[in-house]
């Protein structure tokens, strides 16, 4: 799957370069997707290298990245803006990496948080069952992160 995503990102970059060389404007929809794909590829490669060298540093880096991206999302929400595609993709990748690093027990909490973010992004009110599940588990997640 990573190879497929890498190939897609490479194709998008080639299309952008081709358009630039022919002095055409890049399509507004292609540019953010290509940049997001390249950014995600770079982040995954750097993360894997750090994970191989120093796993403890990788955990800290992922936690800081998740916090930074969540701050961006909160800032955009505070200004009434919808989250950009690149930001949403980055959040999903970082939450997945965090779930793999922190503990498999925490993964369901992160999945529930993603569901809430997705529902909120589409302007849907979260279902009561989802809210009730997330509330106590978020506290547990924060306690686990604080202990590390």
Structure write-up:
Keywords: Membrane, Transmembrane, Transmembrane helix. The chain crosses the membrane at residues 28-50, 56-74, 94-116, 128-145. By secondary structure, this protein is an all-alpha fold. It folds into 2 domains: 1-52, no CATH class; 54-148. Helix content is 82%, strand content 0%. The protein is built from 6 helices and no strands. The chain has helices spanning 2-21, 30-53, 55-78, 85-102, 107-121, 128-147. α1 (2-21) crosses α2, α2 packs antiparallel against α3 and α3 packs antiparallel against α4 (85-102). The longest helix has 24 residues, at 30-53. The radius of gyration is 18 Å and the shape is globular. The relative contact order is 0.08.
Write the layout of secondary structure elements.
Elements (H helix, E strand, L loop, with lengths): L1 H20 L8 H24 L1 H24 L6 H18 L4 H15 L6 H20 L1
Brief overview:
The chain crosses the membrane at residues 28-50, 56-74, 94-116, 128-145. Keywords: Membrane, Transmembrane, Transmembrane helix. The chain is mainly alpha-helical and 148 residues long.
Shape verdict: globular
Helix content: over 70%
- Mean pLDDT comes to 63
Largest sheet: none
| Distance from first to last alpha carbon | 31 Å
Number of strands: 0
Radius of gyration from the CA trace? 18 Å
Low-confidence parts lasting 5 or more residues at pLDDT below 50? Answer: none
Features:
transmembrane, 82% helix, transmembrane helix, 148 residues, membrane, single chain, mainly alpha, 0% strand, 2 domains
